[in-house]
Design brief:
Layout lengths: L4 E8 L7 H17 L4 E3 L17 H17 L6 E10 L2 E10 L2 E7 L25 E4 L2 E4 L4 E5 L2 E10 L1 H4 L4 H7 L4 E6 L7 H15 L3 E6 L15 E5 L2 E5 L8 E8 H11 L12 E5 L24 H26 L4 E4 L4 H17 L6 E5 L7 H13 L3 E4 L3 H11 L8 H22 L2 E4 L3 H6 L12 E2 L6 H14 L3 H11 L20 H5 L2 H14 L3 H11 L6 H17 L1 H4 L28 H8 L2
Parallel strand pairs: 1-2, 2-3, 8-15, 9-10, 10-11, 16-17, 16-19, 17-18, 19-20
Antiparallel strand pairs: 1-14, 3-4, 4-5, 6-7, 8-9, 11-12, 12-13
Helix pairs in contact: 1-2, 7-8, 7-13, 8-13, 9-14, 10-11, 13-14, 16-18, 17-18
Length: 643
């Protein structure tokens, strides 16, 4: 496998009902095309050799014989190829007829999988012809001189890659109360292939799509679905050719519907991601129903990936591209943050909040959350004590935005200039004020935190933390300075999403004067403002100039924590996501920074304050992330050095 990706295909071919010779030729054409495109697993629709709508012709020996001969021909066409092809046909076994999937590789047949659940309602009457898999009284049959396993209990597993395993189910199996795929995945299958021939009805396409996505999520699997195209349409039924490839709840590729010609959809499934998520979830998903499975091994040869990977790699994975979805996420996150803070205030019987306002993104979002909580609790906004604390690096722009925003909300504005206190502290500890090192910076951060904490004690209030998820990942905070608060409302929000949440609030809830201030804050460069300004009065200390772009670090954070990706895979994916924007050298440098800081700064996360979890990625030591504070980064850096 290349970086853990497995290339799969779903195909629907041009078809003539009951014309096995024509159909086999079209199937072979797609198989050859898929081989050229480095597809490793390919699935066709249900009963694709004969057609699904043959009716009572299924009972005729002529059709069954034609299907068998076509299957032998298709199997022979795969000789010399490691690609797995899965096709459908009717098969007579011990006097009974079964709707089967045949799994082919390198000229041979690895196994036959009969359909388990037969629809027998409305326009479907499969029980007129077929028997369910539970009616089998054998577990292997002779076919074309070969002894072939048969049954719904087959899990096909790659030799030397036992984590690469797949199962097969057929159409109605997915729609049943207990889909066979649920059990196949518990038996080790990481990929599920579904041969289908469902007809089309109003809204059925959306329902089918949701089924495929939800089953791939429930099974933590790749789910590849191929449905018969419009060539099957006859009498009262119209078919659409719905082809879908899903991965753990995400649709990687989906075809248009309603077509007569042959079509092939391809996507690269991230097997590493599936295995990582299974390691997290499987202990709680073990079935109490005891089932045994037969392991059918096959040879697997990893094929080289194209220059363009066959899946979309989101550059900003925390931020939905779709405007409606993004707006919904922003509103949900604000609600989670607001309700979390309200609960803490209710529990501690606190009616006042203290928050430091810098004129930057994070403190602005924290203030918005605080305002919303106060309004919902029915407390006056003057109960929010908003303190702006100008220091050596504070610009007029950020100071003015802080003051204007606080005044616009009618919160309790307090201005505490920290410069004199910091200069006195430099004297007390014997630090040269002209040496702008870590001590110089952290003295200011801790002075601000001390002010916030002391005012909170004096007023009987809670200190609201402002640091976001991206800063927590990188340890970009001063220990026992801005690292600490009494409730950290932004702890689950990545930096790339903060701007969008503020923007959503500005457009949907803020007054016009507040909106203007918020939009200017959004456009302000990110900086802790701890170093003196340039002679021009501009910010010198820009965080992204030091660490690298937050969009890149959020990319690394998301795919490391959600997909379990290591350094080599992170760099591989980043090169494709940021192609033309950042060079491979830059990305490797920033990934090195990310790995070093993620490991070295864990001690800050081990004692971080409470804060609401808002997404699947969380670094709270209580919610999701339990990592020793002193773990070595050596293996991660060694992998990077070898790239």
């Amino acid at each position: 496998m290349n970086y853990g990706f497995v290339r799969v295909g779903a195909a629907a071919h041009e078809l003539k009902v009951a014309d096995c010779e024509f159909n086999s030729e079209k199937i072979i054409e797609i198989i050859k095309d898929a081989e050229k495109k480095s597809v490793e697993f390919l699935v066709f629709p249900e009963l694709c050799i004969t057609g699904y709508t043959c009716g009572d012709l299924f009972l005729k020996d002529t059709l069954l014989k034609g299907a068998k001969e076509a299957l032998i021909k298709i199997a022979e066409s795969t000789r010399g190829s490691s690609m797995i092809s899965i096709v459908g046909l009717p098969m007579a076994i011990n006097g009974r007829l079964y709707n089967c999937a045949a799994v082919l590789q390198n000229g041979g047949i690895l196994g036959f999988v009969p359909k388990t659940n037969l629809p027998n309602y409305n326009e479907f009457y499969e029980k007129r012809w077929f028997n369910g898999a539970d009616q089998l009284d054998v577990n292997e049959i002779y076919f074309n001189g070969q002894l072939v396993p048969v049954g719904a209990d087959l899990v096909f597993t790659a030799r030397d890659h036992d984590e690469l395993a797949f199962g097969v189910e057929i159409c109605e199996d997915l729609w049943s109360i207990l889909p066979p795929s649920s059990f196949l995945t518990q038996g080790g299958a990481t990929l599920i292939f579904n041969l289908s021939a469902g007809n089309e009805l109003v809204s059925k396409g959306e329902f089918r799509r949701n089924l495929v996505k939800s089953q791939s999520s429930r099974c933590v699997a790749g789910y590849v679905y191929a449905s018969a195209n419009s060539c099957e349409s006859t009498t009262d039924a119209v078919f659409s050719g719905h082809l879908m490839i899903a991965e753990n709840g995400n649709m990687l590729k989906e075809s248009e519907r309603f077509f007569f010609d042959s079509k092939l959809e391809i996507a690269d499934i991230d097997l590493d991601r599936l295995l990582y998520n299974r390691r997290i979830l499987q202990p709680s998903r073990r079935s109490s129903v005891g089932r045994s499975y037969r392991i059918i091994t096959f040879d697997y040869v990893s094929l080289p990936l194209d220059d363009e990977i066959q899946r979309k790699i989101e550059k900003h994975p925390f931020v939905p591209e779709n405007t409606g979805e993004r707006d919904e996420r922003c509103e949900d996150i604000l609600s989670i943050q607001t309700l979390g803070l309200m609960k803490r205030m209710k529990h501690t019987n606190t009616k006042k909040l203290v928050i430091g306002i810098s004129g930057g993104l994070d403190s602005t979002l924290a203030l918005i959350v605080s305002v919303r909580a106060m309004i919902k609790l029915g407390f006056p906004l003057s109960n929010i004590i908003a303190i702006t604390m100008p220091g050596f690096g504070t610009t007029d722009r950020t100071f003015d935005n802080s003051v204007n925003l606080i005044k616009a909300y009618n919160t309790d504005l307090r201005i505490v200039d920290i410069k004199e206190a910091c200069l006195q502290h430099f004297k007390d500890i014997g630090h040269d004020k002209d040496v702008h090192d870590t001590t110089y910076e952290n003295v200011q951060a801790r002075e601000r935190t001390q002010i916030l904490m002391d005012v909170a004690n004096k007023e009987g209030a809670l200190v609201v933390g402002t640091g976001d998820l991206s800063e927590i990942a990188l340890g970009w905070s001063t220990y026992n300075g801005d690292h600490m608060s009494m409730y950290a409302v932004n702890a689950g929000v990545p930096k790339t999403l903060v701007r969008h949440i503020i923007s959503w609030y500005a457009e949907n809830e803020a007054s016009e004067p507040i909106k203007r201030i918020l939009l200017d804050i959004i456009d302000t460069p990110i900086s802790p403002e701890l170093l003196p300004l340039a002679d021009s009065g501009e910010i010198v200390q820009k965080t992204e100039d030091i660490l690298g772009p937050y969009e890149v670090h959020d990319f690394f954070l998301y795919y490391m924590q959600s997909y379990g990706a290591g350094p080599a895979k992170l760099l591989f994916m980043a090169k494709r996501a940021f192609e033309g924007q950042y060079s491979p050298t830059q990305l490797k440098k920033w990934l090195t920074v990310f790995c070093k800081r993620f490991f070295s700064q864990q001690f800050k996360r081990s004692c971080m304050p409470d804060g609401p979890k808002v997404g699947t990625v969380s670094l709270s030591p209580r919610a999701d992330w339990r990592m020793p504070s002193d773990a070595s980064v050596r293996l991660w850096l060694s992998e990077l050095e070898n790239l």
